[in-house]
Specification:
alpha/beta, 34% helix, 28% strand
């Protein structure tokens, strides 16, 4: 199973890549939506996608993927520091399959 991790934070990409590869998944990382959109997205089985990034947000990237028949069926899980029900609803309305919150701790980030 090929997973694409899209996040502008190098540490988050490395943590997710390490843990997913340890579980036997093939992982590619991209540090922006722009970089991710240049990849053959139809080759991935799952996209883990940050919301707050550069020019193109994760919400915008997800909308582009869901509007494209070649990528519309790929599951998307948002991983973001944004909290609140409004953002959760927005992400799910775009077509995301789940929404995981990043939490800032004094020692770094946790995914939970």
């Amino acid at each position: 199973m090929k997973i694409l991790v899209v996040d502008d934070e190098l540490d988050i990409c490395e943590i997710l890549q390490y843990n997913l590869e340890t579980e036997g998944f093939e992982v590619t990382t991209a540090y922006s939506a722009e970089e991710a959109l240049e990849l053959p997205l139809q080759d991935y089985s799952l996209i883990l996608l940050d919301v707050m990034m550069g020019k193109i947000s994760g919400f915008q990237m997800a909308r582009k993927m869901k509007d494209n028949p070649a990528t519309a069926q790929i599951p998307i899980i948002f991983i973001t520091a944004l909290d609140g029900e409004d953002n959760l609803v927005k992400g799910l309305n775009i077509g995301a399959d789940d929404y995981i919150s990043k939490q800032k701790e004094s020692s770094g980030f946790t995914i939970g």
